[in-house]
Amino acid sequence: MTPLTPAPRVALALVALTVLAGCGMSEPQQAPRHSDVECLQRAMYFESIRSSRDGMVAVGSVVMNRVGSDEFPGTVCGVVSQDRQFAPGVMSRRMTSRATPLVRQTAVAVLRGERHPMVSDARFFHAATYRAPYDNMHYVATAGGNAFYEKRPSELVTQPSPVAPMEGLTGG
């Protein structure tokens, strides 16, 4: 074997140093990723009265309508984790209710295509007791303690106040 002259030794040493320097480096740590089921479950859990399957399906329907819209992120977790769109801590608070299995089953059903029959294209909701001062809110459903609405030009709003609550419209 022929001994290396100083120039190749230095080059070889620099290559080795570069390789070794990268060994301990990794991508920046990110928060654990949630699955679509967990993200939808979290939205339904924190935004609806957990005893109302219709309310949970309606919230899930809004999330899925947003996923399908160009105005919102294109993933369930992207929609649910958007700033100031859902309950504070929706992605981090603990879910401790006995209703959690029902919420999970309902989230799976929505991800498989179940929708609330009255929510249609609605992408928004608020607590049913809240009265907004806007004239562009066309209400389509009230369930699980929330009123669901579409934003429309004010001249196309035919239902300017929340409709009466209806339960028992979804399967399960």
Automatic annotation (TrEMBL):
Q: Which residues form the Cell wall hydrolase SleB domain?
A: 52-149
Pfam families membership: Hydrolase_2
Query: Does the keyword field hold Repeat?
Result: no
Q: Which GO terms describe its molecular function?
A: hydrolase activity
Q: Does the keyword Hydrolase belong to this entry? A: yes
InterPro entries the UniProt entry points to: Cell_wall_hydrolase_SleB, SleB_dom1
Q: Would you indicate the residue range of the signal peptide?
A: 1-21
Keyword annotations of the record: Hydrolase, Signal
Protein name per the record: Cell Wall Hydrolase
Organism equals: Tranquillimonas rosea
